[in-house]
Amino acid sequence: MRECERPRRPRSLAACLMAAGLLTAPACSEDDGIGTRYQVTGSVTYKGKPLEKGQIRFLPVAPEGRPASGDIEAGQYRLMTQTTGDGALPGKYRVTVITTEADLTKAIAKQQGGIPNQVDVIKAYQKPKRSAPAKYEDASTSGLEAEVKEQSNTLDFELKD
Questions:
Q1: Alpha-carbon gap, residue 90 to 31, rounded angstroms
Q2: Taking every pair of C-alpha atoms in the chain, what is the biggest distance, in angstroms?
Q3: Span 73-105, pLDDT tens digits
Q4: Is the separation of the CB atoms in 129 and 103 below 8 Å?
Q5: What integer is the mean pLDDT of 16-31?
Q6: How big is the CA angle at 52 (ends 71 and 59), to the nearest 5 degrees?
Q7: What CATH number labels 25-99+132-154?
Q8: Exposure on the CB side of residue 101, measured as CA atoms within 13 A
Q9: Is this model's pTM higher than 0.85 or not?
Q10: What is the pLDDT of residue 87?
């Protein structure tokens, strides 16, 4: 062995980047047995305005499929199947949008020892505020459908009365 011998270096920038894991495809595939997921992002609006908060859920039409979901913030969402932002499996889905929010003001005002009044918490969840019609919370009444393709997907939804 020579005294000044250096370890071999990759011969190209691409080889360096691949070795560092910096070149990635738009698909997420881990050795978790689920399969390759593809990025799904988009917007959700109601009456032409972005939904402030909510959740979107993609429920697979095929029995062997897996659901995916994401939080809606300022009208934008990004789906996950198992880990944050990992996307969804390709296929057809029925879509739900949940925008219920309980007003816990009374429960917090009556809290004792740092615990909100449980009776008021239950009442608040029985009469939640909605920022979109309740029909969108159920896959059988939402009327929303989507298809995730084997690529990066942008799927927008306009909710109506």
A1: 17
A2: 79
A3: 999 999 999 999 999 999 999 999 999 887 777
A4: yes
A5: 45
A6: 35
A7: 2.60.40
A8: 12
A9: no
A10: 97
Task: Of 100, 32, 25, 24, give the one whose Cα is nearest residue 66.
Answer: 32
Q: Which two tokens stand for residue 110?
A: 């009556």
Residue ranges covered by each domain of the chain: 25-99+132-154
The single-letter DSSP state of residue 93 is E
Categorize the per-residue pLDDT at 1 as very low, low, confident or very high, splitting at 50, 70 and 90: very low
Structure tokens at 129: 């505020």
Structural contact between residues 23 and 61, judged by C-beta atoms closer than 8 angstroms: no
Between vectors from CA 95 to CA 63 and to CA 158, what angle results, nearest 5°? 160
Q: How many residues does the chain have?
A: 161
Q: Which two structure tokens, joined as six digits, stand for 30? A: 């881990």
Contact predicate 68/87, CB 8 Å:
yes
Quick one: residue 17, left, alpha or beta (phi over 0 = left, psi -120 to 50 = alpha)?
A: alpha
Residue with tokens 């939640």: 128
Instruction: Name the DSSP letter for residue 153.
Output: E
